[in-house]
């Protein structure tokens, strides 16, 4: 004979939802991982800024070489990098001046790039450099066309 007794099905009181404690634990783990990632990426931001400076210096250096090819000299110290953006008004006046940059880029810290002619650190006839994140000229954090990885 078959057992015909009716057994009620037990329903689970839990319907597949997460408890508050489980949600808090997951959010805590995600927060810890995010904080660790941000901390690790902080160093990469500094490297990215230095890489951008090196790229800017290479671009400015290329434009100065083009200026020199057209005018048989680079801008004087007084004319500076502004000679790439607007025609110099001081002697020696360039004979075949053309605008080579629409505007002079600023370094990642918001400072203007520095130009020194004649060069004191570079093997080129001029120095182009950023004063770095401290904004002080002549410190070890200056990034210029004399450093490894920049234009030579």
Tally of individual helices: 1
How is the main sheet built? 3 strands, antiparallel
Q: How much helical structure, as a percent, in the residues?
A: 25-40%
Could you spell the SSE succession in H and E letters?
HEEE
* Uncertain regions spanning at least 5 consecutive residues: 148-152
Percent of residues in beta strands:
5-15%
> Strands of the biggest beta sheet: in what spatial order?
1-2-3
Structural class: mainly alpha
Question: What is the first-to-last residue Cα distance?
Answer: 98 Å
Overall shape: it is elongated
Average per-residue pLDDT, rounded, comes to 84
Descriptors:
mainly alpha, three-stranded antiparallel beta sheet, disordered C terminus
Structure, explained:
This protein is 34% helix and 6% strand. The chain is built from one helix and three strands. The chain has one helix at residues 20-71; strands at 114-116, 127-130, 143-144. A three-stranded antiparallel beta sheet has the order 1-2-3, with helices on one face. The longest helix is centred in the N-terminal third of the chain and has 52 residues, at 20-71. It is elongated and about 105 Å long. The N and C termini lie far apart (98 Å).
